[in-house]
Task: inverse folding
């Protein structure tokens, strides 16, 4: 706070306090908006978690109770008895890990080529790749299904995983932006030591690019973990289901008499990895959004 | 020294330095280019062809010309799906823009704890899909859902959201605003790029916050506004998982979005030709949008020059 001397006060009696008051009012209003909004934004997640710890009668009580006393921890074992959660979680983990590996590998290679190596026609090719971002997913989903069906890839993880090993336009774009910012001298020094392009990429560029790699890995994780349409189309054998498809199956099976406490237990567990990863790594998420957004 | 060493090597293989670099570049981008051809270019061609055929996944597609397009234009459900997606976009896009920009403006002040708020608003944007749709089914539950319980506390009888043809789409529109935080970092990045001198100059001219917003902030943000607008429209047009999981497109087709109807054509009725035709029509509309972006390129050029200058 600025302490104003008495003469100054008397000189500008009218404008100063009014302005300061207005500033205080604006600040109070801002906090009021932000806090109200936060309550609204967090309420669904809190409700999800507390519902998962309620007994069945408590879920439909009015006025609503926040949580059963004691919390119904037994809902989770009850869920596992009816729903092989861990198997689906394992399937999701496997698919997601492979897709992350594939995306990071292929996209970082391509991004490095597009950013640091010169070739006639390179930028035209890059623009062509980038243009696929504008394609509605459906235009490709339908013919890809026809293609993969002919390859007998239905009820395998190939359609979910294989394309990721051939780059994703968004990830290439994000990493290319990053590689462009690296100073040329790094590579020149390595060339003096006689390193080939492969070694420069693997030993110099890639280790430096870890913030971009992390951002790509995080986005790929969230996108693949939550992906619904791809596994829905390609997987019909229950043992192969990833979590989203399995959840949908669980929910569909309870449509006539839903047990909300169990459904919320399942959905809480399903989003938990995303929440944790986000809380730990939100800095890189935000960086990624800004890079892709502002420069897109 | 360096050049002699690598030049010597290159000479041994009979390639100049720049040729060697070009070969390396080609190898680096090869997987992505193969992927582009196999998973984008070829499928795009196939889907264009499929849209002119009758194909139910068994046997071989029969060429039927533009019959699929004609059938669709005469199909009441097709127009219903167009209407649903347009209505959804017409509400969701302005709401997203206004809410996210409003939040960003509030957060772009020197307030304590802003990073906590940023986390809270950004988190739901990271969560999507089936688990979240299940959560919102429960929130919209007509008897025991949190939303109607809240309304009851202030004396309002909430509607049977997802079970009513009048309210189901409204429910999806309300739900969409939960992910408004996605745009916050983009807005904040744009806001922080505005030079403070502009505000100081405006203040000297006696401008209040509204004049500063209209005359400084919005014009300076215009490229970001344009980008967010285009992304919003594309996103709104992708509405699929929520209606599939939450309402199945009902009641009375009130939430049958364009993408959901396309999916139904392809994987419920196995009318691949119809589905491909729908996908292509969506593609053409998206192309029109892209053209719109290019027509506004003067804004972008101005923006890039600004950025490079700093």
Result:
């Amino acid at each position: 706070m600025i302490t104003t001397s008495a003469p100054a006060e008397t000189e500008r009696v009218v404008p100063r306090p009014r302005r300061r008051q207005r500033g205080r009012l604006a600040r109070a209003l801002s906090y009021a908006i932000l806090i109200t909004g936060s309550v609204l934004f967090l309420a669904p997640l809190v409700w999800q978690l507390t519902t998962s710890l309620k007994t069945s009668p408590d879920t439909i009580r009015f006025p609503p109770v926040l949580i059963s006393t004691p919390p119904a921890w037994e809902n989770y074992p009850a869920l596992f008895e009816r729903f092989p959660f861990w198997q689906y979680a394992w399937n999701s983990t496997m698919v997601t890990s492979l897709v992350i590996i594939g995306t990071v590998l292929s996209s970082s290679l391509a991004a490095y080529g597009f950013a640091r190596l010169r070739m006639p026609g390179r930028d035209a090719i890059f623009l062509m790749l980038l243009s696929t971002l504008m394609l509605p997913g459906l235009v490709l989903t339908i013919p890809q299904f026809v293609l993969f069906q002919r390859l007998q890839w239905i009820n395998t993880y190939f359609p979910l995983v294989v394309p990721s090993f051939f780059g994703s336009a968004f990830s290439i774009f994000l990493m290319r932006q990053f590689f462009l910012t690296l100073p040329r001298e790094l590579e020149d020094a390595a060339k003096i030591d006689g390193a080939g392009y492969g070694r420069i990429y693997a030993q110099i560029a890639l280790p430096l690019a870890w913030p971009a790699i992390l951002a790509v890995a995080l986005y790929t994780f969230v996108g693949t973990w939550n992906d619904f349409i791809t596994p829905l189309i390609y997987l019909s054998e229950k043992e192969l289901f990833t979590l989203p498809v399995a959840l949908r199956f669980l929910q569909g099976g309870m449509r006539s008499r839903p047990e909300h406490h169990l459904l919320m237990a399942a959905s809480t567990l399903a989003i938990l990895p995303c929440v944790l990863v986000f809380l730990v790594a939100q800095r890189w998420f935000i960086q990624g959004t800004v890079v892709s957004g502002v420069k897109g | 020294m360096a050049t002699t060493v690598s030049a010597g090597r290159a000479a041994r293989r009979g390639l100049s330095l720049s040729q060697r670099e070009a070969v390396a570049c080609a190898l680096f981008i090869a997987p992505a280019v193969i992927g582009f051809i196999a998973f984008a270019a070829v499928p795009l061609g196939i889907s264009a062809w499929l849209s002119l055929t009758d194909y139910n996944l068994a046997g071989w597609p029969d060429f039927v010309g533009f019959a699929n397009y004609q059938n669709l234009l005469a199909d009441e459900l097709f127009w219903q799906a167009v209407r649903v997606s347009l209505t959804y976009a017409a509400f969701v896009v302005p709401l997203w823009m206004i809410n996210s920009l409003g939040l960003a403006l509030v957060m772009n002040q020197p307030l304590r704890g802003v990073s906590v708020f940023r986390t809270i608003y950004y988190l739901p944007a990271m969560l999507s899909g089936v688990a979240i749709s299940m959560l919102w089914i429960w929130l919209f539950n007509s008897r025991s859902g949190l939303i109607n319980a809240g309304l009851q506390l202030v004396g309002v009888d909430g509607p049977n959201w997802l079970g009513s043809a009048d309210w189901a789409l409204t429910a999806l529109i309300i739900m969409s605003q939960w992910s408004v935080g996605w745009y916050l970092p983009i807005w904040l990045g744009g806001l922080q790029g505005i030079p403070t001198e502009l505000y100081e100059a405006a203040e000297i001219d006696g401008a209040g916050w509204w004049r500063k917003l209209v005359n400084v902030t919005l014009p300076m943000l215009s490229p970001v506004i344009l980008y967010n607008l285009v992304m919003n429209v594309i996103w709104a047009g992708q509405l699929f998982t929520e209606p599939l999981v939450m309402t199945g497109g009902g009641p009375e087709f009130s939430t049958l979005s364009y993408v959901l109807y396309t999916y139904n054509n392809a994987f419920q009725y196995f009318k691949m030709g119809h589905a491909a035709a729908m996908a292509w029509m969506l593609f053409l509309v998206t192309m029109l949008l892209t053209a719109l972006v290019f027509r506004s390129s003067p804004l972008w050029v101005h923006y890039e020059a600004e950025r490079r200058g700093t």
